[in-house]
Amino acid sequence: LIAGESGTGKELVARALHTLSHRAKGPFVAVNCGALPDTLLESELFGHTAGAFTDARRDRPGRFALAEGGTLFLDEIGDISPALQMRLLRVLEDRTYTPLGSARSYKADVRIVAATHRDLAKLVEEGAFRRDLFYRINVVKLTLPRLAARKEDIPLLVEHFLERFNRLKGKKIQGLSPGALAVFMRHDWPGNVRELENAMEHAFILCPGGLIQPHHLPEHLRPDLKAGPPLTGLTLEEIEKRALWEALERHQWRTMATARELGIDNNTLRRKIKRFGLAPPPGGKT
User: Fold this and answer.
1) Which helix H or strand E contains 12, and what residues bound it?
2) Phi-psi category of 97—alpha, beta or left, where left has phi over 0 and alpha has psi -120 to 50?
3) β-pairing, 106-107 with 96-97?
């Protein structure tokens, strides 16, 4: 069971679990349980036979059948109805399922990974989620924190999206400039990983090549740039000046801590501060 706010990357984790498992050669099948009404979700999960309901003109396999030998990812499992919770519980306990309109049961050889943004334990206490189903899916629980609470993951996620969008869009973007990365590290990311992915896609559209610069980022990320020394160009010197100022800000202008982060000695840092004419804001430390 993967728990976390919307956009924290629950499906990314589910795919990683699949890729690193002995089922990696099998299919990974995802279904959003909160996006479909009960009648459609039941058919989507278990399949149906021809004539099972109006417009069911032919047999159709469900997601359990499509995930045979692999992993079935049930996203937003906290949104399914009590009736469907009962049917899903039986499938998990018996490891068999019956398509709608069929009298035959089929064995299910799938690994179930479920996810939710809701507090299932609270829903159990309120009677909105079956206690027995909760215990069945809550064997191993992973809780994903908000992206703002794990900012050390941002560079890794950026690399992931760089590789993905370079492949999809046929570009050769090298990465983020120090200034763009600093913007990412300062932002609170209320939309979590999904917001980061959208920001990267936006930057890919605007960036012709080389490094993604701050002005390639979405507008809602850029107002903070006014707080620092203005970017008057895209030269390496200007990028260094911006990165230096942002590192000093992160460490409240403590030069020893800033020098350690940048991998330079304190005297070198002081010379660069003087050369670029940088000064702390009112109340900042020196």
Assistant:
1) helix 10-19
2) beta
3) antiparallel
d(CA 43, CA 61): 9
Using the structure block, give the residue that is written with the tokens 């009298």.
Answer: 103
Q: Which two tokens stand for residue 130?
A: 């079956």
Contact present, 8 and 191 (Cβ < 8 Å): no
| Percent of the chain residues past pLDDT 70, beyond the cut | 91
Tens of pLDDT along 200-240? 999 998 888 889 988 899 988 875 554 555 544 556 677 77
Domain ranges of the chain: 2-144, 151-276
The domain 2-144 having CATH identifier 3.40.50.300: the answer here is yes
CATH fold label, 151-276:
Helicase, Ruva Protein; domain 3 (1.10.8)
Label residue 3 exposed, middle or buried (CB < 10 Å: 0-12, 13-18, 19+): buried
Q: How many whole angstroms separate alpha carbon 87 and alpha carbon 74?
A: 14
Buried b (16+ CB within 10 A) or exposed e, 141-174: eeebebbeebeeebeebbebbbeebeeeeeeebe
Type of residue at 245: W
CA dist 213 and 161 (Å) reads 16
DSSP symbol at 224: G
Average pLDDT over residues 35-40: 83
Q: Which of 224, 214, 264, 223 is nearest to 244 (CA)?
A: 264
